[in-house]
Specification:
The chain is of the alpha+beta class and 244 residues long. The protein folds into 4 domains: 96 residues, 3-Layer(aba) Sandwich (GIY-YIG endonuclease); 30 residues; 45 residues, no CATH class; 46 residues, no CATH class. Helix content is 35%, strand content 14%.
Length: 244
C-alpha cells in the first residue's frame, strides 16, 4: 500500500507522520528500531521508551498515487506534528534540527573514542596505516626524486633531460663531432623551414606572418583564437588564412 501513515501517542495525542510505498513494511521497520533503541528520531524514541509500545497506535491516514506521495506527506508535515524532526517531505538529515543535537554528537564522539581505545595496535595499524603494496599508487616507500638542479624527475632516474650526463660511452655520439661541412648543411637546412602547424605561415588582413605564434605576439591575439579563426566558416574571419 502506498500512502501516508501516522504514529500516535495515546497518552498525550502527539503524532509522527510519514509516507511509504509499502506502509506495512515501513511500520515493521519503525517498530523494530524503536524496540531496539536505534530509531533515528530521538523525540519519538524517547516517548516510546517512556510510555511504552502499548500506548502508541499505527494508523493509515491516506492512500494515494506514488506520483503525489511526497506532495501529500508535505501537507501533513505542514500541520507541524510534534514528533517529526524534518519539515520537508523529501527527507533530510535528522541531526541539524534535532532538539537533542548536542547530545547526539556527544554520544557519537564518545562512541568513536571508546571504540578506538579498545582497538589493539595491530588493528589500529591495519585501519589507519598506509596500505603500502595494496595501494596501486604505492612506489615501494620511495619519496619523490629530484635532479641536482631541483627539478622533480621520475623514479629510477638521476638527472633531468637537461642535466643528464652526455659524455658517456652509452651515448652513441660519444667521442665524435660533426664535421664543418655537416654543421653547415644542418644550419642551412633549418633556415626558412617550419615544423608543425604552429610554424605554418599565416596571412591576416593581407599581412603575412611566419607563424600563428608570431601573429599572436604582434597583434596581441591569443594563438588559439587565431587558429580558430583560420578554420572558422564564419565569413567574418575570411581575412584569416594559412599561406598556400
Amino acid at each position: 500500500m502506498v500512502g501516508i501513515y501516522r504514529i500516535k501517542n495515546l497518552v498525550n495525542g502527539k503524532i509522527y507522520y510519514g509516507s511509504s510505498k509499502d506502509i506495512k513494511k515501513r511500520w515493521r521497520t519503525h517498530k523494530n528500531k524503536l524496540n531496539n533503541g536505534k530509531h533515528h528520531n530521538s523525540p519519538l524514541l524517547n516517548a516510546w521508551n517512556k510510555y511504552g509500545e502499548e500506548n502508541f497506535i499505527f494508523e493509515i491516514i491516506e492512500l494515494c498515487d506514488e506520483k503525489i506521495l511526497l506532495e501529500r506527506e508535505q501537507y501533513y508535515l505542514d500541520l507541524k506534528p510534534e514528533y517529526n524532526i524534518g519539515i520537508k517531505s523529501s527527507g533530510g538529515d535528522n541531526i541539524t534540527k534535532n532538539p537533542n543535537k548536542k547530545d547526539i554528537i556527544r554520544r557519537i564522539t564518545e562512541s568513536i573514542k571508546k571504540r578506538y581505545k579498545l582497538m589493539t595496535e595491530e588493528e589500529k595499524k591495519e585501519m589507519f596505516s598506509l596500505p603500502m603494496d595494496k595501494n596501486p599508487n604505492w612506489k615501494g616507500g620511495l619519496t619523490y626524486v629530484y635532479c641536482e638542479c631541483g627539478k622533480r624527475i621520475g623514479y629510477g632516474h638521476t638527472h633531468c633531460n637537461k642535466c643528464r650526463p652526455r659524455s658517456s660511452e652509452n651515448n652513441p655520439f660519444f667521442g665524435k663531432q660533426h664535421t664543418e661541412e655537416t654543421k653547415q648543411k644542418l644550419s642551412e637546412g633549418k633556415k626558412g623551414k617550419y615544423h608543425g602547424e604552429q610554424n605554418i605561415p599565416i596571412i591576416i588582413d593581407d599581412v603575412e606572418y611566419r607563424s600563428a605564434g608570431e601573429a599572436s605576439k604582434i597583434l596581441n591575439i591569443p594563438m588559439v583564437t587565431i587558429r580558430w579563426r583560420v578554420i572558422s566558416k564564419n565569413k567574418k574571419f575570411d581575412n584569416y588564412k594559412y599561406k598556400d
